[in-house]
Amino acid sequence: MLLGFRNEDRQLRTHVLNTIKTLSNVLQENSDIKSTKGFEAVVKVLKSCKQEATTQLFRFGLECGVCMREPQETVGLPCNHIYCLTCIKNSLDAGRTSCPRCRQQLPDDFQPHVSEDISASVKKNAEFRRCCNGFFVDLLSAVCFKDNTPPAEGVITHLLSYLMIETEHKQIHTKVLSPFEESQDKNPVVRSVILKLLLKFSFDEVQKYLQQHFSSVEESRFVDDGDRAELYALYINCLEDSIWEKMPLEGNKAAELQCFTNETQFLRLFLEEDTSAPATVCIQHLQHIARLRVTLTMAAKLISDRLPGNNVPDRAEDFLNMVIKLCEDSGNDWYRVYLIRKLSESQGVEYVQTMMKNPEFFWIFPEEIHQQNEDGGLMDQYLVYGEEYKSVREAVAKAVVDGDVEQIEDACERCTASPKNRTVFLLLALFREVTTLYRSENRGLHPTPEQCLEFDDLIEGSTYLHQAEVRRFASALVYNRLGALTVQPGSAIMENTITELIIHLAAVLLTGNHHLLMPLKHLGLSPENMQRAFIPTMPDDMLAVAQAAMNYQGQLTWYVCPNNHPCCVDMCGMPIERGRCLECGEEVGGEHYTVVPGFTKVQLHEDQTRPGHILGDPERRNNPDALDTKHMSLTPFTLVRLVTHLAMMLGASEKPEVVQQIIQPPVKDVSLFLRLHIIKDLEQLSQALGKGADDNITSVHLVLKSLQELPRASSTTIDPYLTSKESRNTWETTVATDIMTPKLTDLDQLLQEANGNIRNDSRVSSNFIIRTIHGDDFSFLASLQQCSEVDSSAVWSCRERLSLLSLTHIMETNDQKEELPLLWRFLQKEREFRLIKFLPEILNLQKRLVRKYQNATEDIVGPIREFIDQQTEMRQWYQKHIETFLKTWNQLRVSVTSNEIKIPEEFCSRDLDLDSDLQYLLPRRQGPGLCATGLVSYLVTLHNELVNAVDHHTREDSSDYTVSLTELTEQHVISYDVEKDLLPLILSNCQYSLECGHETMSEYDLPRIQQQILTRFLQGKPLITRAGIPTLVNMQERDYETIFKTVHGKVPQRALSRLIWNSVSRQLDSYSEVCEALKIVELLLGYLSMTGGDPKMKLVTYLQEILKMDQNINQHILKAFCKCDLRHCVCLWQVLSSLRSEKMLQLKREPFSGYPAEYQVPLTEENKTELKRFMSRGNVDQWLLEMHEFLLLRLGRLRATEDYNPSWSLKEAVGAYMDLKEVEVPPYVEENFSENVQLSHIIETWKYTITAKQELMNE
Asked: For this chain's UniProt record, which GO biological process terms are given (predicted)?
């Protein structure tokens, strides 16, 4: 386990166990691995361990006797010496007939061949060495370079020596960081591992060692003079990573402002010093360049944020002014080059070109760029089609000038591409050269009627526009009649970009008939055919998916526990044993086919997956619940969604009212709605790919091009209209797997080729801004020639941006999902997992709110904002915790409602804010409070999901280590901060290497990232049980019937006399007094149900002498209770609970808020007349009391309408309830209460009767 060695390898098992014992003894004697002595002791054990393993596997060691290296294609001789196949062949060819080492003669018929057994041993030896070296590197990371103190100088000296090896011929070779003198590089490679370890500490502490490393590399001449810029870039990358790792968190405003102050001070000192390049390059100079890169990156972000017109903080303004001074006074325009490149990365080339015309940003651009008069052409990303498209485009451009459209047809004829490709070339060229002219503010530059007529001739006669719908589209391009896509002067750059993508897709769909294109073709060209379609990438009903998966295993009957969590019973569907709900711990199941109380059968959850476009507000797309990729890889999924939105936008350009009917909930401006979704798609794609703005758009054009190149299929099962969820899921999975994923695998190479075509386009290649951003030849910028040898395009180039989405894309591209399953699972739902840390905070909020309102005398009404404003001592505490709740709920809302407790749509269809009802914060088993209960439950599910994944990965079982929500603390939950913990961890595992004659390569050590995420964040956490989940129990949710039955058994009960009843009612005059009295009686009932008591003991005496509560009770309430005995408690509860509802009616408040609407049907005039007649026949108080109790205890339950049909007779329903209690129904009720009054009228009947009785008494 310590070495990562597999136990099943028996050959080396004993040796490994002995090594571990030895290592344990060494560590006991030399526990400080940071010291030279301790470090050397551990290395000695590792070397011995490795050598002994090699000796066991190879009698004479693992070294070719000719080349003296580890053998390649290993051959074994009869004497057991081993050689490379090539080496021994050369020896035999030279006439030698014996072993080159021991001179033993070889048999006459000896033929060298690769030995499978020896090859297996070589592989085993390499694996063992890898395990030992992995342990060594882990030891460095976890012990030697841990905390704030670097290891001893002797340790670092040893480590630096491990990067190189001197051969017997006095030649120096590079090798991986390892204490073993093996696996030297054939070609010199400079690696960043030791640099990364050293830079965990402050630069000042390790500068000496960094310089030592740098000097040794330079002196060894591993890198040619032509590759020095790449070498400097490697060091600068490491230094820059170290600076970013120590940056303050985003969102910490005070720290961010302090950071601006620090960088402003750095720039001021830098400018005060001699900014000219030093005579020789040193590590200090590279550190300055790294910090300048960081500073300029911060400035680029500030400028980008400022573009929409946002203001920047004062200290940030001072920082920006100092950056301006750096660019203007330093005499080094490489700073401007880097700033321009960073702005282009985030905003795109076209935006940078527009900035040059804004005086506010003149300072960014070198003087030579300002002096260039020409604007330069726009980048043409249709050049992904290469030279043949370009030739058609040039022909169209000439035709615009000279009117000769025949040359366009000639250019198409000369193409070697397929006819449909030529049609695509022609359509895209018409857009690029004709339609875009309409963007000009100068109408004189728009196509003239004469020019349009010339193009009409082309459209009508071209061989490549033979289809009528293609000709109509070509004509729309020439006349700019494109509906919502019509080109307008002054359009925003992003709007133009989206239009270009849609035109590209339109050309592909018009010319393609592949079965996989059909759904997109219908969406874009005939959306009326997709009115009931299940639109691709829309979310499924996850609960239905889970139930379907479980039902697949056999027939199941679904139930819910008392807390509404779903459970299932197999076989006949009737329970034969008891169990506990996995969600909350409540008893479920039953015995002898009889269910336990509260375990209720329910209908199988119907699949709520809806057709149409149901993503909703684009602004919610960053929430984790909107990032479900439906088991597809993220990047292909994002591309499928983007192409779907582009197709819908194409359809909406001509038929907006048709596409509008596909979108749910409805939107007013379909084009704006879809455009915002496309922008969000592009943003998420950029994060996933880690590409800049222009490369991101080019990637999409490459994908659209691939749609046009689909091979013809012989047969298909694809439903072109996507009429079911299953057909939709089949289509999107097929497209993601067969089209998107292969294109992404080769994306970098395809991008390089496409960018070469785009940047070499004669229209833009002379443009200085394009050359600055993408070129390496800076001869046009004179100031760059006098700079340091460090300053070069390679050093001042932008690196691909790190994000968790881009890491996911790297895993997809490298096909490492199965190799690193824990990391893959973590990354798939990381946006949700990061929210687990808020569980304790949300739990504390709910516990406090439950304590506050469990026995509240007032109704809980009003918005959250009002509640916060009413707080005095703890306002800030509530403000902070409630903001955490709202943020977490809004991000997980859809996931909670799809995967956990079934929450009615009326409560979860929108995000919550401070103006939402306070009821949403109060955890309940029904109503808006289900949202609070569901959120805690889902956070527990997320936590347990990761804990179980860790168990599966480590093959451990932590099921015995559990904590309940009652005892949960911050230490129990998985908790990390993305900016502070996760991204620095990933960045520290990004290693750089420079092989002689090659560019600097970056590579993420994904296995180590997985291991460190496991050990730092996930391992050692308990499973969380839902026992003790906070719940605010309504009166109707308490099991009063059981309490009453228990009290009856221990303290026989009887009804209050009419006189005592009236006395209590009159003395408790206010609503608050009634509530306080009811709370005392409920407490009293709880004690009596457990302890019993003397039925004739006075209630006040029991409160004073047994419970010692008299000091805490209002004397007015004690006086009201003075004539009551313990035998009156149940009746007293009936009277007070009814009186509470009466008082609420008097205060114009609703006593039955949240009850099913089915029981609140208004009375008819005939009903009211019958009730008045009933009231005149006798005293109705006892009947009203029983009706009220039935209302509270039976109709306030979950799913009450399933047990008590609203169409039943009210008299029969309440009468049956009284019979169960063995209470006689009054004769006057049997005789006079109308049969026409149904249970649906019960609430209005009680309220009407109470009100009428009060009015009668007041007359």
From this structure: immune system process; negative regulation of non-canonical Wnt signaling pathway; sprouting angiogenesis; ubiquitin-dependent protein catabolic process
Among candidate residues 691, 797, 787, 789, the one with its CA nearest the CA of residue 748: 691
CA angle 667, 671, 677 (to 5 degrees): 80
What's phi and psi for 151, nearest 5 deg?
-70, 175
Q: Cis check for the bond before 665: say yes or no (omega within 30 of 0).
A: yes
For residues 929 and 917, give the distance between their C-alpha atoms in angstroms, rounded to a whole number. 10
- Beta carbons within 8 Å of 90's beta carbon, 6+ residues apart: 66
For 578, phi then psi, to 5°, come to: -90, 155
- How far apart, in whole angstroms, are the C-alpha atoms of residue 262 and residue 685? 34
Q: Are 599 and 580 in contact (CB under 8 A)?
A: no
- Which residues 6+ apart lie within 8 Å of 791 measured at CB? 277, 332, 334, 784
Tokens of 441: 């503010």
1023-1025/962-964 β-pairing: parallel
User: Residue 868, Cβ neighbours under 10 Å: how many?
Assistant: 17
Q: How far apart are CA 1191 and CA 1034, in angstroms?
A: 13
Ramachandran angles phi, psi of 463, nearest 5°: -65, -25
Q: Which residue has the higher pLDDT, 948 or 1029?
A: 948
Cα–Cα dist 88/65, whole Å: 9
Is it the case that residue 250 has pLDDT exceeding 70?
Answer: no
- From the list 369, 415, 371, 364, the residue with the least C-alpha distance to 389 is 415
Which parts of 513-609 fold into alpha helices (H)? Answer: 518-525, 542-551
Compute CA distances 69 → 74, 121, 131, 949, 982, whole Å.
Answer: 11, 16, 21, 42, 40
∠ Cα 202 205 209 (to 5°): 115
| Catalytic one of 102, 144, 415, 572 | 572
3-state secondary structure of 612: strand
Please say if the pLDDT value at position 408 is more than 50. Answer: yes
Neighbouring C-beta atoms of residue 1222, cutoff 10 Å: 7
- For residues 616 and 665, is the Cβ–Cβ distance under 8 A? yes
Say whether pLDDT at 1072 is over 90: no
In terms of pLDDT, which residue wins out, 572 or 831?
Answer: 831
Q: What is the dihedral of CA 182, 186, 188, 190, to 10 degrees?
A: -50
What does the alpha-carbon distance between residue 436 and residue 492 come to, in Å, rounded to a whole number?
13
H helical segments located in 736-871: 741-745, 747-759, 762-765, 768-774, 804-813, 821-828, 830-833, 839-853, 864-870
567 noted as active-site residue: no
Characterize the bridge pairing of strands 578-580 and 566-570: unpaired
Per-residue three-class SS string for 253-283: HHHHHHHHHHHHHHHHHHHHCCCCCCCCCCH
What pTM does this model have? 0.70
Q: Is the pLDDT of residue 8 over 50?
A: no
185-220 exposure pattern, b = at least 16 Cβ within 10 A, e = fewer: beebbbbbbbbbbbbbbebeebeebbeebbeebeee
Task: Go through the chain and tell me how many residues it has.
Answer: 1259
Tokens of 53: 């393993």
Give the SS3 label for residue 799.
Answer: coil
> What single-letter DSSP state applies at residue 980?
I
The predicted model gives 457-476 an average pLDDT of 94
pLDDT single digits (tens) 326-354: 999 888 889 999 999 999 988 888 888 88
Average predicted confidence (pLDDT) for the chain: 86
Q: What is the spatial distance between Cα 1115 and Cα 1121, in angstroms, rounded to a whole number? A: 10
Token pair in block for residue 991: 């290693």
Provide the pairing of β-strand 74-76 with 82-84. Answer: antiparallel
**How do residues 535-557 score in pLDDT, each as one tens digit?**
999 887 655 555 554 454 456 77
Cα within 13 Å of Cα(917), Cβ side? 16
Q: Tokens 């469990």 appear where?
A: 854
**CA distance linking residue 1013 with residue 823, whole number of Å:** 8
Residues 6+ apart with CB under 8 A from 663: 612, 613, 670, 673
